[in-house]
Amino acid sequence: MRITAIYPGTFDPITHGHSDIARRAAVLFDHVIVAVAANPAKAPIFSLEERVGLAQTVLADLEAVEVRGFDGLLAEFATQCQANVIVRGLRVVSDFEYEFQLAGMNRTLIPSIETIFLTPATQYTYISSSLVREIAFLGGPIKDFVHPQVLSALSEKCKKTRR
């Protein structure tokens, strides 16, 4: 049986922590779909197309990983993709309560799909997209947290915003 996992998120921007989770999932599952959520409620700084493109660049070396954008309920998208598993990353204990609620809701909406939690490598546990964006917009160094292509794209966004 071929197992397809879906790793959803806003990925605004994709960080080394995100790519670490995607890489770990690619070892465990036959096919991993990194599902980039439109999520306009979060007011992302990158468009959906830009986030998909950056994720494709960052994860290009992983044959088992596909990056796709989606708008709407994860449950519907996961069903469309015939996913068997939802992968969620846990960085710190405080992530668990929210992720546990999401897993319960997804289990109710799509009982046939299991949620599993993966933790990133220790050096990435403190990295979040929101912190990376904040540091970047305040002119701080972010090269240790993101792929060079993401660094370039985020630097451009920051320049345009400051003008």
From TrEMBL:
Residues engaged in binding ATP: 10-11, 18, 89-91, 99, 124-130
CDD domains linked: PPAT
Pathway of action: Cofactor biosynthesis; coenzyme A biosynthesis; CoA from (R)-pantothenate: step 4/5
Binding annotation for substrate: 10, 42, 74, 88
Main location: cytoplasm
Keyword Nucleotide-binding: yes
An MF annotation (GO) of this entry: pantetheine-phosphate adenylyltransferase activity
Cofactor(s) named in the record: Mg(2+)
Cellular compartments per GO CC: cytoplasm
Site (Transition state stabilizer): 18
Subcellular location: Cytoplasm
NCBIfam families: coaD_prev_kdtB, cyt_tran_rel
Family the UniProt entry places it in: Belongs to the bacterial CoaD family.
Quaternary structure annotation from Swiss-Prot or TrEMBL: Homohexamer.
Protein's recorded name: Phosphopantetheine adenylyltransferase
Upper classification of the organism: Bacteria, Pseudomonadati, Pseudomonadota, Gammaproteobacteria, Thiotrichales
Name of encoding gene: coaD
